[in-house]
Amino acid sequence: MADETARERHLAREERQRADRERNQADRERHRADQERYRADQERHRATEGRERQAEVAERQDAALDLLRRSALLSARFQLDTSDINRGRWQFFLSLMQRPDPPGEDQG
Asked: Percent of the chain at pLDDT above 70?
């Protein structure tokens, strides 16, 4: 009877240890999956930031190109028609071009 009780305790202990190993394995797998999700989130975040930076650069380039087009048009108008109104526009444009950039405005 004592041998059977000891055997049952031994089997119960082995079963608990097996269950503990399975829980530990499941915990490790969950932890690994959490780490992978975290890394994927970081990559998505970096990609989003990169796209936003590219969009900002494109927007600044578009604004600069628009300014160049407008200045070329104004220059052409003045060269084709040197009337007082176009001369005034040209002088105003030149005065704007000589002003420093407003604080906080990025040229890069």
From this structure: 93
Residue 11 and residue 22: Cα distance in Å, rounded? Answer: 16
Q: Are 79 and 90 in contact (CB under 8 A)?
A: no
3-state secondary structure the chain: CHHHHHHHHHHHHHHHHHHHHHHHHHHHHHHHHHHHHHHHHHHHHHHHHHHHHHHHHHHHHHHHHHHHHHHHHHHHHHHHCCCHHHHHHHHHHHHHHHCCCCCCCCCC
- Which residues make Cβ contacts (< 8 Å) with residue 106, sequence separation at least 6? 60
* Nearest-angstrom CA–CA distance, 34 and 48: 21
57-65 mean pLDDT: 94
Closest by Cα among 59, 98, 92 to 74 = 92
**Distance between CA 87 and CA 93 in Å, rounded?**
10
